[in-house]
Known about the structure:
This protein has helices spanning 3-29, 41-50, 73-88, 95-103, 106-110, 115-118, 123-146, 152-160, 162-168, 178-185, 192-201, 227-232, 268-284, 294-305, 309-317, 327-339, 345-360, 362-373, 375-404; strands at residues 235-239, 249-252, 257-261, 264-265, 321-322. It has 405 residues and is mainly alpha-helical.
Amino acid sequence: MGAAAQEEIVEISVIEELKRAAEKFDADFSKFKTKMHRYPPAIRRGIDRGVNQPYTPSSVAIGPYFHKIDHLQRAEEVKGTAAYYFCKGLDHSDEAAVYQKILSLADDTRSCYDDNAVMGYRKADFAAMFLRDGCFLLQVIMWKTTGGNVALSLERWFRSNETAILRDIFMMENQLPWLVLQALMDKTPAHLLGLLRCYQSGHGESRGVSVPERRESTSAPHRPSSAIELAEIGIKLVPSKTTQFKDMDIRKGLLFGELFLAPLVVDDLNASWLLNMVALEACSATAGKNEEYTVSSYLLLLAMLINREEDVHELRVKHILHGDLGDERTLRLLKNAADFICKTNQHSLLLEDLDAYKQKRWLRIAVHKFVYHNFKTIVTVFSIIGVLVGIFKTLLSLSSSTSSN
């Protein structure tokens, strides 16, 4: 075989390899909404700088990514117990029938994960793992929603590990495809974290976000405004009537403006949930769709409002922030969380609305700023004037009395 023929064979081989790589990438991309994503490296590095790592479970592994970690093996016994009691409670079902149901989904569920993470699992082992994990999650859900209704041994373990469990089952890399839970409960988000994000952002309902989706941000970047600065220019912070993150909006009154924000309890558990929901949006949201970046937009706005501990205190006074974490720790947690979030269109639109408010009401803002910064002095001056007026009135009345005499 000549050199030219060999070069042609190599060229064809390279082209075929590139084609296979492109086909695999396209196939993975077509499932990006339902994939069990890994943390993007940039977000992982940002979290490592100053926030407790929200991507490594401490009590229970769900799915293959953390399945073989030593400190999580105790939970494997618990998951087996949960699966036994769950199957025992099903009408006209037994463990074998439920296992066969999950086994039939093994190929579909395997494709939801990174190839390297599932390479070492046989189909039967994969199905057995998903059976235990799915039954465990449903038992936890039943326990949390009914206040019991699970075996006493499970209830005791759930109760003693409650905070760790609730943190772990909403980690982005610690998820189970929803079709597994659907198959077990016969009753659709991609997984449990996706359900939490949908519920917390408020987009499980038909009503859209306050900011129109088709409106695009066109202006240059804006100078942020802290909570104290907003108070100076006459914009009051008001807690929304719901805890859904989409309910953020700016409303203009006759004299003052109002910025509505969903109230938030800041603690370690909620911090972990927020960071994992932000990571999920970074991996699965569609560019240009505001509702798919709601959690990120909310966190960006919240972080913009707090530059000092005084700002955190202001948000507490306005009943936006709640929780037992101190002002300094709350400030650090929220600022670190927002550092690695890409700017969203919805956040930019809210900043544009703030800028428009400042430009159209510059005179009222100037007056309000003066009153805001000199309020005590103004009150003191008017008090003195009131006293002086009273003295003058008394002197005049005395003078009038003397003249009449």
